């Protein structure tokens, strides 16, 4: 990308045509590269050479968003907020009556990025001041002279603040705001290059920034989309600083966005508002416990929009929520929750009033638990509590859970069935192998892979064919952490687990799934780390069977029960991690055999289907068996609905929720 190419981009009148050029720009530098300071200076230099009229034709926020590389975006934790959501948040935070009463209403975005929130805030405040000039002067007569000198300069001096760690972002935001009125002279803005969480203030350009500190300023509104940076991407030194300064919200495995909630509280006046769009991760994760407690004890929540696991950010696997709250705790308050019911498409503009897309209900603040916030409507809440209260045991009381094997290099240890004979591999260490995608409800697809369970080998030279197969991977295998520490021999599995776990019947299920997929393995299969295992404790084998437990885990009642508290990790994907699953309760009915026999029939029918598929028999027989499976599943559901004494409307609510 040459200087001329950049000039062509910046002078292009058609914003719609710019993104394609930006893609070429990113390809030129590579997605794994961060723009150097020199490259950014070159862009800034080109922008500075343009006339104001030319700059006004360019969306500098969009320019910043497109020019910053994928790696830098990830490093900074930046996610770009859709314009309709930015507008909604600003409309919620800046009302006409606020500005009329207090023309010095102060707004800050502590991670301003391309400046979208601050630009929208500027436009909103300017519109209010222009349309309510007489009322403002009547309420605040001393302000007339300042407003008459220019609303543009007044807003930028008295209403708008922003900070960001990225110098390029600060430059773009500063210029975008200055260009809102090209007739005014340049003056100092309250936009700083600064790590607002920790660092001392540092100015970008003497001509465009203010040397005054933020420490003595209290704001009416803190708003924005703070960066999402997980604990694994934060340096150890920086993480320790965050733990020291933000100990009441930030733990060792927390996200950096947690700290912006506490910082927002510090920046606000009493009764000031915090409005953030941030990852919904904190409402349910163990590491969010301290943040949940902090919000509950230091804010009064006014509303919360839960996007319910659906991803609304372009190219980012994060599902957010929007939280709006007032600094200061008021007891016994209710707040509105708007919960997204289905995935948004391009035609769905952000509109929480659309009842076909968003479900609305009230939540009592006092019911927010430190261990996790659950947002469900009142009827679903009653059903959940009814199911939960009737449990005889927690699953962890009657079962043990285990994770599958981590090989450390699947190419070395996982073998296709047809390659066993080709390589003449020693069969005594070969074990049948499945991954999560093989597991279905009550059954599994054909097992066509095997694992070289090399943990059984005392001397690798006794297995020459296995050695020949894995030798090409030796260098990579030796670099595994456990091998470097001397915990594993180079040819052993990274985490082979306890062999006895796999050598007897067990319930297995995938780590992530859209629906409940539990099956009984009678064939002693070994499984990957994205598969979990449940085994009933010996002392409960006379009270409950694996078949009964599997029937319960696959039932509609348990799916509803689990999904109410489960972590959503995709549009319709749930995390079946045992730390949540094993905390749920199970009721053991008197007729355990009824469910057990139904499950055995289902498994038998699936086995028949698999044989018919192998023999390529008439599909009508397969369809007949599938109908029988559905009938047995319905009988199991009816049994558990009756066992838990659910009313007809409660059963219908569960069925509608699971559609």
UniProtKB/TrEMBL annotation:
Signal peptide: none
Ranges where the TaqI-like C-terminal specificity domain occurs: 488-584
Reaction equation(s) it catalyzes: a 2'-deoxyadenosine in DNA + S-adenosyl-L-methionine = an N(6)-methyl-2'-deoxyadenosine in DNA + S-adenosyl-L-homocysteine + H(+)
Lineage: Bacteria, Bacillati, Bacillota, Tissierellia, Tissierellales
EC numbers on record: 2.1.1.72
Gene Ontology terms, MF aspect: DNA binding; site-specific DNA-methyltransferase (adenine-specific) activity
InterPro entries assigned: DNA_methylase_N6_adenine_CS, MethylTrfase_TaqI-like_dom, N4_N6_ade-DNA_methylase, SAM-dependent_MTases_sf, TaqI_C
Identification of the protein by name: site-specific DNA-methyltransferase (adenine-specific)
Single GO BP term: methylation
Keywords attached to this entry: DNA-binding, Methyltransferase, Restriction system, S-adenosyl-L-methionine, Transferase
UniProt keyword Magnesium present: no
């Amino acid at each position: 990308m040459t200087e001329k190419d950049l000039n062509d981009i910046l002078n292009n009148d058609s914003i719609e045509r710019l993104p394609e050029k930006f893609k070429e720009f990113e390809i030129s530098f590579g997605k794994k590269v961060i723009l150097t300071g020199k490259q950014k200076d070159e862009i800034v230099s080109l922008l500075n050479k343009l006339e104001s009229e030319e700059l006004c034709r360019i969306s500098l926020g969009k320019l910043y968003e497109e020019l910053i590389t994928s790696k830098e975006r990830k490093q900074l934790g930046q996610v770009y907020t859709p314009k309709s959501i930015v507008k909604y948040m600003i409309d919620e935070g800046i009302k006409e009556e606020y500005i009329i009463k207090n023309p010095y209403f102060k707004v800050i975005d502590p991670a301003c990025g391309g400046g979208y929130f601050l630009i929208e805030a500027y436009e909103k405040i300017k519109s209010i001041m222009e349309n309510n000039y007489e009322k403002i002067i009547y309420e605040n007569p001393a302000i007339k002279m300042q407003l008459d000198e220019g609303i543009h300069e007044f807003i930028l001096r008295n209403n708008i603040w922003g900070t960001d760690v990225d110098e390029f972002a600060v430059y773009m935001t500063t210029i975008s705001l200055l260009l809102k009125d090209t007739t005014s002279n340049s003056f100092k803005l309250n936009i700083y290059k600064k790590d607002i969480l920790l660092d001392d203030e540092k100015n970008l350009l003497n001509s465009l920034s203010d040397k005054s500190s933020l420490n003595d300023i209290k704001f009416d509104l803190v708003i924005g989309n703070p960066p999402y940076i997980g604990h694994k991407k934060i340096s150890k030194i920086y993480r320790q600083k965050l733990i020291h300064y933000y100990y009441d919200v930030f733990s060792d495995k927390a996200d950096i966005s947690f700290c912006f909630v506490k910082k927002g509280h510090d920046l606000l006046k009493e009764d000031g508002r915090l409005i953030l769009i941030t990852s919904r991760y904190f409402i349910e994760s163990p590491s969010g416990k301290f943040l949940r407690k902090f919000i509950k004890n230091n804010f009064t929540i006014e509303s919360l929009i839960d996007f319910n696991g659906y991803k609304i950010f372009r190219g980012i696997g994060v599902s957010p929520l929007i939280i709006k709250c007032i600094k200061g705790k008021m007891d016994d308050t209710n707040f509105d929750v708007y919960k997204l019911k289905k995935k948004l498409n391009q035609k769905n503009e952000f509109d929480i009033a659309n009842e076909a897309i968003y479900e609305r209900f009230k939540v009592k603040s006092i019911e927010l638990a430190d261990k996790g916030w659950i947002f469900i409507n009142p009827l679903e809440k009653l059903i959940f509590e009814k199911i939960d209260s009737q449990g005889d045991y927690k699953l962890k009381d009657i079962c043990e859970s285990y994770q599958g094997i981590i090989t450390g290099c699947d190419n070395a240890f996982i073998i296709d069935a047809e390659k066993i004979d080709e390589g003449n591999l020693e069969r005594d260490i070969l074990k049948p192998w499945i991954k999560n995608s093989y597991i279905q409800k009550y059954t599994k697809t054909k097992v066509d892979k095997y694992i070289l369970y090399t943990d059984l080998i005392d001397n690798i030279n006794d297995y020459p064919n296995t050695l020949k197969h894995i030798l090409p991977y030796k260098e990579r295998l030796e670099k595994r952490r456990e091998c470097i520490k001397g915990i594993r021999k180079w040819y052993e599995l990274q985490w082979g687990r306890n062999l006895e776990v796999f050598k007897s019947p067990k319930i297995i299920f995938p780590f992530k799934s859209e629906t409940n997929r539990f099956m009984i393995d009678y064939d002693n299969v070994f499984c990957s780390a994205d598969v979990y295992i449940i085994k009933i404790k010996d002392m409960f084998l006379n009270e409950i069977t694996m078949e009964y437990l599997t029937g319960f885990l696959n039932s509609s009642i348990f799916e509803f029960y689990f999904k109410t508290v489960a972590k959503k990790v995709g549009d319709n994907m749930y995390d079946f991690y045992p730390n949540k699953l094993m905390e749920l309760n199970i009721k053991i009915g008197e007729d355990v055999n009824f469910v057990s026999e139904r499950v055995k029939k289902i498994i038998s029918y699936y086995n028949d289907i698999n044989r018919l598929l192998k023999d390529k028999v008439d599909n009508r027989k397969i369809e007949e068996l599938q109908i029988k499976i559905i009938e047995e599943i319905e009988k199991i559901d009816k049994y558990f609905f009756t066992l838990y004494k659910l009313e007809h409307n409660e059963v219908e609510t569960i069925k509608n929720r699971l559609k």
